[in-house]
Design goal:
The protein has eight helices and six strands; from the N terminus they run H-H-E-H-E-H-E-H-E-H-E-E-H-H. With 212 residues, it is α/β, with parallel strands linked by helices.
């Protein structure tokens, strides 16, 4: 990414990276996904509004901020809204805290931590989701494969402009500020929830970007 190249120039000097070239990470694009079949397999109601966050759960993924944003949104009181953290929780205090926070809202919100998902189950959640939220902080120069997975499947995705994610165009994802406010994330989720046609258009734009 340009971000990784910039880090190289910053820490090692511009001469060190003068021959570096940016090669976009290659990602295959699925021909289609069976949403209904995926929801049946995962036991998700066919009429649910499903938000997924993919990848290992740890402080760099801002999972607690997503939970806070959903709790602050109008969707917190909507029984059709489901949030899935599709990944294994951090083994330390962060993972324990997220589990406790999820248990604490279980009486009014449908939130689940799935644990580690193999490739087949991961793909099923990608197919079942209505939107994805993929947040980052403390980048070390890496490119998020999960963002590309979501975009390749035509999934409307909310990200924040942190690290290499800042290079994603705002017409193929909902791009929040690097250090976003919880209210801004809540508002972005509400907008996608209310605009089904907009979700479809954004997902198609994302898929086309990966193809290009």
């Amino acid at each position: 990414s340009q971000h990784a190249r910039a880090l190289g120039a910053h820490w090692l000097g511009p001469d060190f990276v003068r021959h570096w070239r940016v090669v976009p990470q290659l990602k295959s694009v699925p021909e289609s996904r069976d949403r209904d079949a995926a929801r049946r397999a995962l036991r998700i109601p066919p009429d649910a509004f499903v938000i997924c966050s993919f990848g290992a759960i740890d402080p760099t993924k801002l999972n607690l901020e997503l939970l806070d944003a959903l709790a602050a949104s109008t969707l917190a009181k909507d029984p059709s809204c489901h949030l899935y953290f599709v990944g294994e929780p951090h083994g330390g205090a962060y993972g324990d805290l997220l589990r406790r926070r999820v248990e604490g809202v279980s009486d009014r919100m449908k939130v689940r931590v799935t644990g580690w998902a193999d490739a087949r189950r991961f793909e099923a959640y990608l197919a079942a989701a209505d939107i994805a939220v993929q947040l980052r902080t403390d980048s070390r120069g890496e490119t998020s494969r999960a963002i590309l997975d979501c975009m390749a499947g035509g999934l409307p995705t909310i990200i924040n402009a942190h690290g290499s994610a800042s290079e994603v165009a705002p017409d193929v994802a909902v791009v929040l500020a690097d250090r976003f406010a919880i209210a801004d994330l809540a508002a972005a989720i509400e907008r996608l929830f209310a605009d089904r046609a907009g979700r479809a258009a954004l997902g198609q734009a994302a898929r086309s970007a990966i193809l290009r």
